[in-house]
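Recall the central idea of this unit: under ordinary conditions, the amino acid sequence of a chain determines the structure it adopts. In this exercise we apply that idea directly, starting from the sequence alone.
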Amino acid sequence: MAFDGITTAALVRELNAELEGGSITRIIQSEKDELMLSIKKDRVVKQLLISANASLPLVYLTDQKKEAPLTAPAFSMLLRKHLQGGQILEVSQPSLERIIIFTVSHFDEMGDLREMKLIAELMGKYSNIILTDEDSRILDSIKRVNSSMSSLREVLPGKDWYIPEELQKEEPLKTGEAEFKEKLSGTNGPLSKALPRTFAGFSTSFAEELLYEAGVDSRKSAEELSEEEMSSLAGAFAGAVQRIGEGQFLPEIIFRNEEPYDFTCLPYRMYDSYAYEKRFCASVSRMLIDYYGEKERISRIRQKSADLRHAARGAYDRVARKLDLQKKQFADTDKREQYRIRGEMLNTYGYELKGGEKELRCVNYYTNEEMVVPLDPMLSASENARKNFERYNKLKRTAVSLGEQIEETEADRDQLLGILNALDHAETEEDLNEIRREMSDYGFIRKKSEVRKGSKKIPKSAPLKFRSRDGFEILVGRNNYQNEELSFKIASGNDWWFHAKGIPGSHVIIRSGDREVPDRTYEEAAALAAYYSAGSDAPKTEVDYTLRRNLKKKNGGKPGFVIYHTNYSMMAVPDISGIQREN
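Accordingly, the structure predicted from this sequence is:
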């Protein structure tokens, strides 16, 4: 995940094609470190966002507009004076630096045509947006940097704009194979770090890809390379530089476990394994919007689910402690049979007692072994027998009661494990709302006050929908309530039901439509059941499957919990990268 010089090069190529010749019709400073420019070209207005945010500097084209602040900041007023109404002549990038320069022609107040430059520096905490004249003299910047803030370069009105020598690296586009070998030979440390330190525009991710293509261990240093390895790496470098120079960009988002993992503008072979899924994007801007948008969505869902997860984990811990105590108490009732046997021995052999004894020695006719029955010397044989039977009956009642309590507590435990699993796979706020409703319905969290009449009803989420390669619809429940509805209301008797064996997970349904289901579709449904379960991190997970008509709901059972006695099983890899999702 790197907005490196190569991504910048791909973006510059795209912006040139989209904006060159366009006129700037609107400039707003939507945030303290962000600009939004409206650019009209061929009667179409496009929105360009430029952000110098220290944690996420970005430039991309978007369809969304932003509102201007009530009072325009001074920097945006300066830009309107020198750029608004101007024409974009060129979008360029010095070498492969993370810098984009917009050259704009504009008539000044004297009517003279001037060339101004709007420079976006996308360098992490050093990111900035700078306006200069044709002589690269700074007119102003969105962040002013004085000598006390930086020893490398001041960014202030009247100063010259330049790239500090300390930040300048070798230009890959002007480096041949022989020079590449020479420059790399003088480096120290692992190659995965030496390459980005030496060549402009190289991120660690891109360096890892070059080393992967060349078949070189990224932990090696340059001095450890054989002549053959050095030549192979130089060849990979030359091929990559050629693709960059010719603009052979392919914007893709790399997903791992359904989450955005990286983005690239060149095809990365190191992501060709089954563990990753590549999704092509129509443009670099689209790639950046989708990637960071999805990352933000996932982050937002995780933040919102944190309280629910904390409550569910706390409830689970309480239930687990309760279950442990109940099982210990139940184990104590195992000695109830000895009291029954003692009572029976006293009824059989009690006539031998004369009174005042502390024990009775007799033969246990169940085992034909001698046993000792403790006695209360103050009581008669029949009274001692009755006392043992009373203890037996009390422990028997306790065992029955505890058995029922243990069954209820185990159901609570399993339900909470299902809730935790649902939280792990929650994707939307609707998913969280249904999980919250289940937790409040069953008393795991405090129930919120009733929704006022006329207020907006919280929408319900729908089951996940997939399409097998053989054309069968496969539905996946998102939580316990949805598992219940999917299995007992949506699915028909001849549909196939899948669930990870013995662990919390989603109900998965193949909508057969009374057709014969091929083996490949069974395998895909099993993979979904394994992935959307607590066993998603395991190499393989056992999955049970059966016809829906074989499922039964236990009276008073928790939502989503079923009983079945006829089923098949298979081992499934929790990998769903090749299965088409439809929602």
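The chain is about 35% helix and 20% strand.
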